[in-house]
Every structure is written in structure tokens, then in C-alpha cells.
Write the C-alpha cells for this entry.
Amino acid sequence: MARVPAPARPLPQRRRVDLRRVATADFPLKLTAVLIALIFWAVSILSAPATEIVREFPGRVAVERPGAVPAGYVLQGQLGDVSVRLKGTEAALANVVSSDLHARLNLPDIHNADPQDVPVTAEVATAGVQVESVAPATVTVRIEPITSRDVAVQARFANSPPAGTLAGDPAITPSQVRVNGAASQVARIAALYATVAFGDAVTDLVQSVQPRAVDALGATIDGLAVDPAVVQLTVPVLPTATTRTVPVVPALHGAVASGYWITRVTTDPTVVTVRGEGAALTAIDQVASAPIDVSGLAADKTFEVALLLPAEGTSLVKAAQVSVTVSVAPLLGSRSFPVVAVQTSGLGSGFVAEFDPPSISIVVAGPVPALSGITAGQVVATVDATGKGPGIYPVDVVIRTPAGTTAQSVQPTRVTLTIRAR
């Protein structure tokens, strides 16, 4: 039986998508969701921490001198400056200025005058910025004890007095001051000067001056405190028309010790200026010292003596006394020892020695005081018999004299040594 075909089904119709409707459907709700998402994104970006970087500050930072130093001590040394590396955000680092940075020493609680390396710490006042590191990390300083010393004040002139005048003897009040400071600095003081300058007017100079300490090379020593800080300096300005400069002549009396002689006499000052009337000055060609007794002098000696006014109506412009150094030395001479017995050394036991000649003549030279004190037994003549047996030997004579003297002449210099068994 033939199959009857089933009736055909109608095809389903394709559904059309309305994109415009999809985009506009629930538009307020979708817009709100987008806005909320944008807000969350902005908050997350703004609230995220900024990136920190490390950067070196472009300028150098001076190390500040600490105010808290142990009592009785002072900090010595050049502190210098350091470079500082900072950590923070780009914006924070851009706000850092020099006045925000401070470098300080971390002083140890020690009292040691030797050089030591002290750590340096730095601080920054800018918000959001920290100090990462400091270079160099240490500074070499010394913490020295404070000491004091009394020093005489000396006048020093920065220029010459007006033409036709000369400077008289300066007067300083007080003449001595106390200097305080680090022990090494105080020890360097060679002089303490009050320096003044003359003006054009011919008048006495009266000034208040701050004394300055200098070392042996004339360099100023800083960091010292002087008490009192100011001295009064008065310098007479005198006309040169009524003055004359003449040499100082020391007046020596007496005889030096026997065997000595005066080799040199020096004076300080070597010349002085005398003031007086013209007629009186014309006859003056020297200024003598007070008598100096050199009796029995056997070593160099310095005398401090007054200067004598050369004539009535005259006076000395500056020095009122003189320092006289008398140098002496022993006279050189000689002394004869005509009979000095020859002795032997190193002679073996069981032997006897004879000499031909048995004695020699010796002349000893040296300072006269040393020669006069020599006794006969201090001049010795020996021959060396070490290792020699019986026999006859020509040998050299060895001479020994007291310290400071020498054998000037020896007659004869060789003798005949005869060795026999006992």
C-alpha cells in the first residue's frame, strides 16, 4: 500500500533584534551603573599611595657645631659639610629647601684629646621626606680640655709714627692677661700682641686694643678667649730733633775662673736712644751699663742690669735696663808627664815582663782646668802581651788619658817587651 506523505510544516519565522531598542531600554539604570563604575575607578586611582623615590639633595649641608660639649672641654676640628640622600615622593622632594636640612654631630660621652671619628646625623623638616643616608658618615674632631695661661701683652706698631718723630716706650694696662682655650691652641702661643697704628697728628697715641695671640710663625691663633678682652695702650710720640741713638757698652769687672777666658759679650738691646738738650747730646757717644761682676765665672751667664744715664739732663727713650750675656770657654794648654811607667796587659800567669825603656814621657793637651786636675795615676801607658810566651818583642805603647784630654806627644812610641818564666 502506498505511503501517504505527511503534510508539510510551516517554517518558523526569524526573530529580528532591534539594536536601538536594546541601547535605549533601561537607559537611566545603565547610565547610573556606568557612573558608579567611573567613580570607583577614580577613587581607587586617587587613594593609591604615591611612588617614593630616593634622590640626593643638590646642595651641600654644613655640619652644625654642637652647643652641648662636656663641661671643661672644647670641640676642635673643621666640621665641613655633607651630602644628604632623601627619600619621598616626587612632589614632596620638590618642596625641600636648604633651610629644611640640618646636619649634627652625635658626640660620644668621652673626654679624649686624640682625633676621633664622630657620627653625623641629618634631619629634614619637610613633611613626607626622610633622610636616607649622609656622606661622609663621620667627621674627625678632637674634644680637648680647656686650659688657661697668663701671657704678657706686647705692643706692635702697624706703621711708623709721623715724620720727624719716634715712638716712646709703650705702656700697657693691664700688662698681662689670661688666655683661655683648647690645650693645644694655648700651647701654641708665642706672643700676645696689641697692635696700633699711628695717625698723622704728632700726639701721644692712646687706644683700647684687643690683644691677638700668634704662634711661632706669626700666624694668628683663633678660638681663644682673652680676659680682659681689651687693654689700654699708651705710646708717647717724641720729636727726633732732641734724641740720639748710641751703642750700649757693658761694664765688666773682675776676673773669670782660672783657666777660662771671655769669648763673647752680647747686649740686648745693642743700641738705645737718648733724649736731651742738643749740647748734652753732642758729647754722648755711648751708654754704659751698671757694673757687672764676672769674678769666678766658669760658664755662660746672662745678667739683667740697669743702664746709666750718660749725662745730667738726659733720659732714655725706651730701654731702662739691658740684658748682657757673657760667654766663657776654658783655655787650652798642655802638661808634661816625663816619667810614666810602662805597664802590661794580658800577660799569662807564670810569666814576668820587663820593658826597655821601663818608662816613657807623655805630653797631655786639653782645657787648662781639666789639665790642672790630672793626677799621675790617670795617665797610663800599657802594652798588650796577650798570647805571648817567653821571648823578646818590640811592641807599641797604648796611652790612656782622662776624658776631655788627649796625648799630644809620646816618647818613645814603642818599647822592647821581654817575657820570662817565673
